[in-house]
Amino acid sequence: MRRPVIDPNRSYTFRDYFEMNVPIDELVAYFGYIHQIESCVLPKSSTDFSYFAHLKNQFETHLRYVNLTSEAVRREVLVAPIVLNLAAFLKMRLHVEYPLHVSAQLKGKIDYYLQRNRNLLIIEAKHDDMSRGFTQLAVEMIALDQWLDSDDKPLYGIVTMGNAWQFGVLNRTTKQICQDTRLYAIPTETEELLRILIAIFEG
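The chain above was modelled as a monomer; its predicted structure follows.
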């Protein structure tokens, strides 16, 4: 009989899962979920984009003068402007370093947590290693699924290094986590990324 991928008697934080070298499929299966890498079905908004028109030029300018040498720099220069403008545009609360405790194995802080009515998005910012970053994101989405009231609306998550953004979608009915095959590049795909982010909260 195989040993569990994690010690059921040990306490873990979300960050601990980033540090592990555990296959994501086995890890999410431990919690009763399925992981799939495929083209996720993501909504896109047709709203007037003029409110955000300055962002792409702002990024192109700032990246000439800043080296993306740490997670803190990436969050301040590339991630924060997007989530702050999104929250202001949709008039919703943005939570930074949001604490969540579901169990001894599902606890920690979520970098960015945004919710509008029943629509929810979390974002995990990393300096490097998008693959292990998505593993951490998947565990955070599982924790949210177990923490929230039952609902058939999907949970959306993103792992980002600032200049690259990757979506995850958790189907709460089937317990399937879709890891999108596509990465959205900043600044070149700023508008396309934001149209998806806006649409997540429009439904």
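The chain has a mean pLDDT of 94.
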